[in-house]
UniProtKB/TrEMBL annotation:
This is Right-handed parallel beta-helix repeat-containing protein. The keyword Protein biosynthesis does not apply. The keyword Signal applies. The lineage of its organism: Bacteria, Pseudomonadati, Bacteroidota, Bacteroidia, Marinilabiliales. Transmembrane segments: none annotated.
Amino acid sequence: MKLKSCCLFLLFLLACNLAGAKEINLLDFGVTPWSYENASPAIVKALEAAKDEKEVVLKFPGGRVDLWPEGAVKKELYISNTTEDDTLSKVKNLAICLDGFSNITIDGNNTLVVLHGKMVSFAILNSQNVTIRNICFDYERPTMAEFKLLETSSNQTKLEAHPDTRFDVHNNQLLFYGEGWGAKPLHTVVTNPEKDLVYRTSWKAFERLQATKESANTVVFNGDVSEAGFQKGDVLSIRDPYRDNCGAFIDLSKNIVLENVSLHYIHGMGIISQFSEDITFKKVAVAPRKESGRTIAAFADCFHFSGCKGLIEVDSCRTSGSHDDPMNVHGTHLKITRVEGDNKLILRFMHHQTYGFKAFFAGDSVAFVNPENLMIYNSGKVKTAQMISKREIVLEMEEHLPEDLKKGDCVENVSWTPEVIVCNSHFERTSTRGLLISTRRKVLIENNTFYRTGMHAILIANDCNYWYESGPVGDVTIRGNRFLQCGFTQGEKGYVISIQPETHNFPKNGYIHSNIQIEDNVFECLGSPVLFARSVRNLQFNNNKVDYKPLSKPDEMPVAHFKLEHCSGVKVENNRFNGFLGQALDVLNMKKSEVKTVPKGIFGN
């Protein structure tokens, strides 16, 4: 791929240039490893010194370094999928803040950076040619509590707190807390270590019971929670779902490389890249430290890309233990709320957690989208873009607006859509999906392992109704991956791969997605169907190996292994299917003749 080769060449040039870059050592600014003292003020001073250099390497001392919000950079930031719609402060504490930097490398020297209180591990803002490497981040007190179920009966249930969890009981109800924060149990995920399964559950079974703090690390609930299906040895991870932070933030930046970076706990969303260009993640891990004994590393997503462009490359990465999706790539649909004259629009951010940032720039190309069927009916070019509130943007277009444009339609910025490569990576221990990919440019998902994702291993969506995450795909290759027992929490809806735009309104001969190839993969299905596809033109499922085993009832498959809705040009060729039960193919709003198979008749068509 041209973009991939170009990116590798840029990395080579950067490595060569570092030989002449000035090195700034944090030891010289008073950062002392294993001191357990606040190094935030010293890091701020070191970065101030580094900003004046043409090329610079900022080197950490190794060992353990501790950071507190006191003395750290503080900025008001509005971040995609992360900003709650209320009047509370949006100011974030930034452990490492690179704002307006060029040609800088942060060399962690294998340092473990321990954060105290709610902090963003690093923020790269308005910067270019930035590399962060060889560094790990963790929380002293994760904002998620973990409890192991020690015993349960019809009379009581006893839970044991993880050593990193602090809790108390007030008015017979469990509370958990950390450094500068406190919370009540709400969102709950269960990890079954014996079966290595992670699934969403509810705290409601405990809410109606009285809690007693039996010891510093055990709490007893007086009553029966058997209705929830918990088992002895289960680990319950619980949190407040309020999103007020992220693990790291890359905004309005270009040529960013993260290499050999580990985040062992993330509060809020994960590493969010927003309106940035050419981003490489190489050997980036979001997973608990082995010695910590924790099961969860991410409050929500791990890698999240919103409105980016250029090449996004995720290579040899690993996620394990997230409460939401390991990776999500999308744009944002904004809704037209008003039309002024013949070339001016007022647009509005619609989802309550996504707003407050620039989403259009002069010269950008846009698509006009019918929200009822997600079809693009026209395009335009932005002359000027101005935010008039945290929710609203005024666009002045270069040309007259389309005659059929109307209030309520949506607009997508198609200039800020990336090419994506996800390769050689491992995704496990999540109760949700694996990858969510929605971009019109070339996508390659190759040589990855998806292990027991609770829902779809891969979801290709597009919607103008709830999340407003855009857009259509036009060139996707899913090749050489292993899908191991994915989709087990969704039953008959748990398709391993789901192509599911959020609409049921299909114009004749109109398709939202196109040109999707699924080839040379291995599927080990445990009670889950294989593929759902809606509104796709040119879909290929070739040379795959699919082994199916029922989850519970050995002779029953309640739904078809393949379900297609309003698709055309479908090919299913030279696959190996083992253990299929019941109906293999179900079609809706299309003819079976649209599905070409080799050998013929394998689906009864």
